[in-house]
Amino acid sequence: MLKIYNTLTKQKEEFKPIDPPNVSMYVCGPTVYDFFHIGNARSFISSDIIRKYLEYKGYNVKFVMNLTDVDDKIIKKSIEEKTGTEQVAEKYIGAFFQDIGKLTVAKADIYPKATGHMQDIIDMIKELEQKGFAYNVDGNVFYDVAKFKGYGKLSGKKIDELEAGARIEKNEEKKNPLDFSLWKKAKEGEPYWDSPWGKGRPGWHIECSVMSSKHLGKTFDIHAGGNDLIFPHHENEIAQSEAANEQPFVKYWLHFGFLNIDNTKMSKSLGNFFTARDILTKYSAEAIRLFFAQAYYRGPLNFNDELLAAAEKGLEKLGNLTDTINQELSKNITEGVTPELDIKQFEDKIIAAMDDDFNTAQAIAVIFDFTKEVNRIIAKSASGGENINAEFYKNVKAFLERTAVGIFGIMNFNADDNLSGAGIDVEHIQQMIDKRLEAKNEKNYALADKIREELKELGVELKDSKEGTTFKVVK
Q: Fewest CB within a 10 Å sphere: which of 94, 127, 260, 361?
């Protein structure tokens, strides 16, 4: 029985989708004005693992992630880059897809853009205005927080305390300092759309309310995002959506913990701001995914080179087993022993861990325990001079593909995929290996060593055995 911690109720709840076996899931995506940072990557990877586990459990997941392509930051970037806002958005949308591809994050079913839903946004604002939840001040439309009785139920914040807070930005147009923008009056040189309130563009919060309900329904199963979005973004989404639609907005709210860099909040001013593409030049996607999965998704996480290097080191054990499995299966041994291995016991442990609010750290530990046990069996058979039947390796591979690959994305049994993903030409590598073998046969060991070193510089490690030479990507 899967239990999920619901930010709305502040407790773990049994997961009961609205329309089983279908699950509707919305995750706040990037504002496309720059390359996304490693903190965003945590949200994208964590939600990817959750989605894949739900699919592993047999659910049909409809996964939606928005792309915010109209925003103050995009306008600012367009001025800096001396180009249009559309060009900025398209540039960084392309970069976003490149980077999530490298991180092996599965694509969403739908990536709605704010600019593609402008009439829907205007219609929802009109609905809120008609119901008395919104008011227009000279082309700026605000949400009247005081009119929504449940405001603060997600974050646990109280309106009177918020009003008294020193950080609230003063705006003479607002009835209440907590009121937030639904529609912003156009400023000179900014992109705009025609509306009943004049030329302008939507506020950030209304975009997600509209896009999620448009593609998943007025009430849907899961809404996820970073902890920093609980207030005010998700709180405001609830206020807008429930006021307009007069029914509950989301059943389960999931939030991912903060990511610190060397125990310090990530900040460009501190010089500790890293994009996902920065990190991918130093570490593999599998190492980054393993690093995130070894921590509880809701808790804070410290990020530094030592911890990433440790994750990369841990992957070596899985990589070595991958190589062994591929090599043994290539022999297709039909005779020999099939050692006893209770795979179901390990799989049941992974399910138990993941069913407890997606305890990825415990599930990952099970995968490493499984790897250790398989290696023990292989070593024991080798010391006894026994050949292991291919069926054993097929079963081990199938289990790891269901779990380590299918859910967590921390293994890859396709060596060619690893190489091409690292920008390495597989055909060229094989030609170099053949040339090296030729040199060894001619006793030209200096050339053979030189080729090995050249491959090493390309990030390819060779392993010689009596069966031949194999290779893999290393960092």
A: 94
